[in-house]
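Box 3.1 A note on notation
Throughout this textbook, protein chains are presented in two layers. The first layer is the amino acid sequence; the second is a token string describing backbone geometry. Keep the layers aligned when reading.
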Amino acid sequence: MPLSEVVLAVAALLVGLAVGALVVRVLKPGRRADQAAAEIESIHTRLDAVTGELNRTFTQALQQATQSLNGALGTVRDETRAVREDTRTAIQQQSALVAQTLGDLKATNNRILEQSKSLDEFQRMLHGPKLRGDFGEFTLEQMLRDLLPAEHYECQAPIGEGRVDAVIRTPYGALCVDCKFPLDNFRRALQATEGAGRDAAMKAFCSDVKARINEIADRYIFPPQTLDVAFMFVPAENVFYELIGRPELLSYARDRHVVAVSPNTMYAYIQALAVGFRGMKIQEEAKRVLEILAQLGTRFDKFQDHFNMVGKHLDNAKSQFERASRDVERFDATLQGVKIGRLEETQPPLAEIGPFKLDS
């Protein structure tokens, strides 16, 4: 309810109470008419005074309330305008951000669609067994090239009466890797909408895998030219997980000495082989160092013999030098004893000295 209506209601209530009280007082029994008229006239006068006072009070209160209300309305209007401007700015910024995000999402979606088309085309290309086998051989060759030295592997290598996709050469025989793998029935199992159709396709897939295991075991395992094991390269991880999830297939492959490998597990196997090859190279280098040390020992023994011989010759030369020195001293003494015209009687004759010679 507005403030003006509240003030009017309170004023009317007060006036009504005052008038009622005066009327009750005037209409009391025993009052004379002239007294009642005088009192009524007095009541009218008081009512006029109260009404005037109420009008002034109401007018002042209404003016103050109006001023306060106008001030509050002005403040609210300013705050509302500021909030509206801030909201409009925020909405514009968010709209621009949303528009940019939608544009990025559209561009990303277009790229995803293009890549999906390319992937679909690539998958259609791999439907053919020949292209699928070529892709598997390419993947395996890149992996071998990145991890192994060139002298330890060969692609499309002759083995037995045929050729194998890849062979890893070890000191104990060749490790054969076959890349061809049957995927047609597995793809039919994934596309089957009924359980019976999927079971039939998976059963055919298991038969294909067993046939491939038998072929690898018969063609690529014949020690000592090869190791007593061969790798069956499965080109897709999901197919490999389906394969290892069937214990009967793993047991059958283990009995035939065939190991199923995926790109990830093949990478781990090749890494282990690379470490072994590095160890073998270190061992060969160590053998070569030992051979060089043995040769150095033999040469040092010969040098020691020559050195000892030189020492003996030096000893002989020293002895000869000492003898020659003594002979020179005796010869010098003889010369010193020569007198003009005669020899000292105390010196032995020159013939007794003997010829000058070195001991051999």
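Residues 33-125 form the longest helix (93 residues). The chain has nine helices and seven strands.
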